[in-house]
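Onboarding guide, step 5: your first structure request.
Type a short instruction followed by the sequence, for example:

Predict the 3D structure of this protein.
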Amino acid sequence: MTEPRGQQVEESVSNAAAPGAEALPPDDPVAAGAPSRSQWRDIWHQFRNHRGAMLALVIFLGIILFVGIGPWLWTIDATYVDYRARNQGFTLAHPLGTDQLGRDILARMMTGGRVSIAVGLVAMAIALTLGSAIGVLSGYFRRLDAPLMRLTELFLALPLLPLLLLMVTLFREPLSQRLGAGGGVFLLIVTAIGVTSWMQTARIVRGDVLGLKEREFILAAKSIGTPAPRMILRHVLPNVISPIMVAATLGIATAIITESSLSFLGLGFPPDFPTWGRLLYDAVDQMQMYPWRVILPGAFISLTVLSVNYIGDGLRDAMDPRIRGR
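The system replies with structure tokens like these:
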């Protein structure tokens, strides 16, 4: 019995949508997933050839292990105050010294890094979700393009740092009273950063969708009456995953920098809730006497941001077939 013509056309459309897919469907239905695995294997092979990205990946994984596993090995409480041990240098009991209140700097670096990276990941997820949704809707539906792009341009025209400062000033106390000091400020900061950082992702995704919807497999899928939600989920999103992943890596770096800036200005997390930016803020007054208290969190912020940016560079080169091998 022959298959319906619509089903055959849709199967050919699905094969055309996946770059590098075979012209004919495999005899074994289980082998249908092989092209996808081979594509990811090829992307990993291309990524490994980018030396800067590989070095950055090693550094970033090392930082993740430092902040993730470190507190399990170094069990000193980051908020424990010991006035008798304040302002100590590098010792066996405190390898990175102590601050003006006698709190262990190594423990605070680990805990602060965990909070800073968590802020970067959650804020990036919010910005990426908003930006991808607005970019896809704007690029695919012509009637939504003008209003969504005007909204994007409006957000791009806003001064983001004063807007963030205003949001933190207005909503910090109410959220802290309802969710606690740490939880309320965390929710406020990741939401504020996320809703003010999606515009670049939206414009990048919109540009890719505009070019993609004129491709043959999209036009063929439209001709057989494929619904718009299925078209977006099955054909459009898988083909714009490359710019979305690159935007994700850059969004993590931007969110970490923004949170550090807010904490450095004294508008971030409370003093007993350390982050790398808060450690910088606390160490400014004694920077000349104890410079390592500024150098250590600043170095970790810089290494994290640089490594994430280089990973994004490597992903862009590996996932874009037009610039592979350069």
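Each response can be followed by summary notes, for example: The CA atoms of residues 199 and 218 lie 26 Å apart.
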